[in-house]
Design goal:
By secondary structure, this protein is mainly β. It is 0% helix and 52% strand. The protein has no helices and eleven strands. The strands form two sheets. Strands 2, 4, 5, 6, 9, 10 and 11 form a seven-stranded mixed beta sheet that branches. It is globular and about 40 Å long.
Length: 116
Amino acid sequence: QVQLVESGGGLVQPGGSLRLSCAASGFAVTNYFMSWYRQAPGKEREWVATISSSGANTNYADAVIGRFTISKDNGKNMAYLQMNSLKPDDTAVYYCKATNVNRNFWGRGTQITVSS
């Protein structure tokens, strides 16, 4: 059974940090680009970051450059999103996505709330 499960969400104060994890099962992340997306209340889902199948290349949305870091551990079949210097505008449900030329998989998301 193919599954992506995000974890690590929660409430954090502005300026704080969180690390999201994405656990994959039923397929090998080593064969997939892994991405994080987010969806804030009343807004469309937006792309945040992507890491290549090998992990050698990463790309980020302008809004998170310098603050967020995407990574993956192919041996553990996991992807991660380290989020630093969090802002209230980062409040959203964060989703993990696995992509290759043939298939896309989405997780169910984890809520991040940045508030004092």
